[in-house]
Each structure stands twice: as structure tokens, then as C-alpha cells.
Design a protein that fits this description.
elongated, six-stranded mixed sheet, tt1808, chain A, 12 strands, 247 residues, alpha+beta
Length: 247
């Protein structure tokens, strides 16, 4: 992934770029799952950036305004690392989609405030994932419609996923969150690590087998050379003894 270097500017930030916010462990697991999957989804796109837990400052004139989406997808900007997302240094581009994973300590009022600010600063779509909802994980897709967000789809079921056409993925709820791409569920971060390790071990075993096969081929070639040399020596001895090998 290319590294996008922050360019220093002379705008004073009135709130910190980084701060530690305690979250439920499940919150972190789901945020990591979504971010990692989206980074992989858009790995070949030079103009789509995916961030998680990154401070977004939308207004150069008032840097007290800071949004902290769990995950945001920005179209029209290069991927890469940033200390924060300052809109005035990003051609004024706002995230196209933000994904918020509810924490058990968050209230409806907290998310209403976040949604109001996201709408005010140009976010077109929002996905809300509530892993603590009664009845299982609940997913809701919202789309900006004038001065409010309109609910496009909601699910708490694994059988009725919420389809996000803009991202090319679907979210299913129920007993656990599942993110689906091309009919396949995204692996969790741990599953992806285990799969990568398994693939690396398989590649190592294949390399060892290939080395053994190459060694056997060399041994066979050496034996063939020895047999040919022995045949040549025998033919020479027979000719010395007067045996006509052509007869």
C-alpha cells in the first residue's frame, strides 16, 4: 500500500488528533474485521482510502469539530497512512460511507449526535452495526435524503443480509456479524491469520517436496550418467578384445 504523507499545515487543531477511548472487546474485533476486509476489497483501487479509528476534521475554520467514525471509506483520495483526516488537505472530500459499531456504553442520543454531524458534513451513507441488540446482531443501512438519513434496510438475520451496492458487500446479522463478498463470508482477523499461516506452512511443505523431487532427479541423472559411462567402458573393453559390436 502506498504511504500517503501528511503535509504540515498551519491550522491549529483545538482538539487532539489522537485519544484513547475504552471500548468493549467485541467492538474492536468487529471494527478490525470490517476495516481489514474493506482494505482488501479496495486493495487495487488507487482512489479509495479506508480508515478506522482516525480523527476526521471536516472544517478548517473550526477545528473543534472532530468526528471519529469507527470505519470510513473515502472515494477520490489515495490510500495510505495519515495521522488524522483533515478535509482541507484532502480537496474537501468527505467520507462516502462510514460504519459505526455500537458499544455497550453508547446511547441512542450519542449516535443521533454522531449521525447529525456526519450528515451535516456530507457523508452519503452510514452503516450501523449493533452487536448488543436484543435478538442478535442488528445491521442498519442509512442513506442521506435531504436533511435526514433514511433507513434503506435493516436486518437481524443471517438469511436476510443488508446489501451495500456502493461497497460491493453485504452485512448479515443474527448470532454474529457476517460480511459477505461474492457469496463468501469474510474471515475474522484471527481466521485470516490462521489461514495465512496455514498457507505459508503448505507452501513450505510444497517447497520441501520440490527440493526432494529435484534432489531425486539429480540422483537419477547421476545414475544415468554412471550407467552410460559404464556402458562406454564395457564397449571399449569389448573392442579391445576384438569383439565387433556392429556385427
Amino acid at each position: 500500500m502506498p504511504v500517503y504523507a501528511d503535509v504540515e499545515d498551519d491550522v491549529e487543531l483545538l482538539v487532539p488528533e489522537e485519544e484513547t477511548v475504552p471500548e468493549d472487546d467485541l467492538h474492536g474485533i468487529l471494527v478490525d474485521l470490517i476495516r481489514a476486509g474493506l482494505v482488501a476489497r479496495f486493495a487495487d483501487a488507487a482512489d479509495v482510502a479506508v480508515f478506522s479509528r482516525l480523527a476526521w476534521f471536516p472544517d478548517r475554520q473550526d477545528t473543534r469539530i472532530r468526528l471519529d467514525p469507527d470505519v470510513m471509506v473515502v472515494r477520490g483520495r489515495p490510500p495510505g497512512h495519515r495521522k488524522s483526516y483533515k478535509a482541507w488537505m484532502e480537496d474537501g472530500v468527505a467520507p462516502a460511507v462510514i460504519i459505526e459499531v455500537w458499544s455497550d456504553q453508547d446511547t441512542d442520543a450519542d449516535y443521533r449526535r454522531r449521525l447529525d454531524r456526519a450528515l451535516r458534513h456530507g457523508v452519503a451513507e452510514v452503516v450501523i452495526v449493533d452487536p448488543f441488540a436484543v435478538g442478535g446482531v442488528r445491521v442498519e443501512h442509512l442513506r442521506a435524503d435531504g436533511d435526514r438519513y433514511r433507513s434503506v434496510a435493516t436486518t437481524s438475520s443471517a438469511e436476510r443480509p443488508v446489501i451495500m451496492e456502493s461497497l460491493g458487500i453485504s452485512f448479515a446479522g443474527g448470532n454474529e456479524l457476517a460480511v459477505i463478498e461474492d457469496g463468501r463470508r469474510w474471515p475474522t482477523t484471527a481466521e485470516a491469520f490462521l489461514l495465512a499461516r496455514s498457507e505459508a506452512e503448505r507452501a513450505d511443505r510444497e517447497a520441501v517436496r520440490a527440493d526432494h523431487a529435484a534432489a531425486r532427479a539429480q540422483q537419477e541423472a547421476a545414475r544415468a550418467d554412471q550407467e552410460a559411462a559404464r556402458a562406454d567402458r564395457l564397449a571399449a573393453l569389448l573392442r579391445e578384445a576384438g569383439v565387433d559390436l556392429e556385427a
